Amino acid sequence: MVAGQGREGGSGAPEQGAANPWRVISATTTAYKSAGPVARVQAFRARLRYALDRPLTPYLLIIGSTLLLVVLGLLMVFSASQILALGQHHSAQYYFLKQLIAALLGLVLLIGFASVPLAVLRVIVYPVMFGVIGALALVAIPGIGMEINGNRNWLDFGFFQFQPSEFAKLALVLWGADLLARKQKAGTLSQWKHLLVPLVPGALLLLALIMVGGDMGTSMILVAMLFAMLWMVGAPLRLFVATVGVAVVVCTALVVTVPHRAERLGCIGVTKLDPEGACFQALHGVYSFALGGPFGSGLGAGVEKWGQLPEAHTDFIFAATGEELGLVGTLSVIGLFSALGYAGIRVAIGTKDPFVRYAAGAATTWIMAQAMINLGSALGLLPIAGVPLPLFSYGGSAMLSAMSAIGVLLCLARSTSGAKAALAARSKNSRIRRRLARVLPRRRTTARPAPRPARRER
User: Fold this and answer.
1) Residue 54: what pLDDT?
2) Could you give the CA distance from residue 364 to residue 369 in angstroms, rounded to a whole number?
């Protein structure tokens, strides 16, 4: 539990007049160095708590972890895709350049969503929702939707391919949060019919259109987001038990009726290759981690990407990271996602605005659930679901949708009163402005001399 989470916009902001532990401790450097280990640990905890309780901490954590994940992901996409690109008679930078373009376009979307006022997000809710439903309906039409690896989830526009199911998650975040916020303001969330309708039917419509194309991984993420919204709004426990039971029955039916899904379920914890070649991808994902060791074989020096590990630059990029960057690299990726998830939770619990709370919670659930499914698949702890690692794996639509979600999180993070005041103070007292004030000449403020009195004529 974060201190001060109940204050409006505070996100755990330090109280007025509270002493800065960093300055207090650093003021007596000699005493700090001569202190024992227990005192040093206490001093470090005080500094860490003060840093985490600042109003801008979630905002800065979101920016920093996102940029580091995107940059590290670009490096790994370049390393893991070179052999595949050369085998397809492209240049070695083919997939890297496409991912770089997607990252730059995603950065534009991130800045756009982060810069708009909060009211604008609520205005575009229904255009985004209906646009995604229309695009998913086009994918479901035979002859229009494009099929890749057995799933028909893409629209082909010639010069680029677009996957609408990735943006269904963004639509559910905005539409669901706005819907629940309006119902909470009207005081109707205590009734089951208002709690479930039209949220659950709208989510089921998105799920049905996505499952027509066979994308079960994205459907699982949408279900997790729906459960997160119902939990945040305070749905009764018996409602959760009923919905989880229905979800388990439906999921089991979808797995049993499709042979390749049942085969993937049997690859959990695989340690040796089946005589028929089943679980080949899952097994070589585990091999990649084993070959990496603590520090990895070096960036670009992995051997599994030479054909043994399928989809090394997309679904199994975490395994390629484990081979080339080792345990240190994989723990760094997990740490960055943990920081991003922590920041998203801080945004959700640090506000009294219901729209901010529901949207931040749903967006954080989206990123973290997708990351956990991808990481679990690569580690052999979960069945292979075919979902990319957000902000990291190769995939233009996935990058654009994830960057849009981060932009929404940044917009929500800066909407609290504490963050607004801190950002305004930073802008006013920025170093650049102070340096310009020193360099540029000051305006003359001296008053003009008073006019001389007119001479009297004799």
Assistant:
1) 87
2) 8
